[in-house]
Design a protein that fits this description.
The chain is α+β, with helices and mostly antiparallel strands. The chain has helices spanning 3-7, 11-14, 16-27, 33-40, 44-56, 79-98, and strands spanning 30-32, 60-67, 70-77. The chain contains 6 helices and 3 strands; from the N terminus they run H-H-H-E-H-H-E-E-H. The longest helix is centred in the C-terminal third of the chain and has 20 residues, at 79-98.
Length: 102
């Protein structure tokens, strides 16, 4: 096993909550704050913190608008976020493949 592969995992994405957010947004072009919160079972505060970290890294875009006169926050992966997530998944696949029995 090559331990250096584990050290290459992006720590921002690797955290459980952020990995769940990135996975959800990779599967769906954009999700509202409420959809993410309910799907992932997070509190408002916890989700807000993770979204802020991902946004600061440039991995997600957060858009604020109104729908039926109510505020609507929508999240989506940026091009950099898609690339970082794809690289993360590729690295995980490499880790799994090196540990397969012959």
């Amino acid at each position: 096993m090559k331990p250096d592969l584990f050290l290459q995992l992006d720590r921002v994405i690797h955290e459980k909550g952020r990995l769940a957010i990135m996975s959800s947004l990779a599967a769906t072009p954009d999700l509202s704050f409420t959809e993410l919160r309910d799907t992932l079972g997070m509190t408002d505060g916890n989700l807000t913190t993770h979204l802020r970290i991902l946004q600061e890294e440039g991995f997600i875009a957060v858009a604020k608008s109104y729908q039926n006169r109510r505020p609507l926050t929508t999240c989506s992966l940026t091009a950099a976020g898609r690339k970082a997530f794809a690289e993360y998944i590729t690295l995980l696949e490499q880790i799994v493949q090196q540990n397969k029995l012959p």
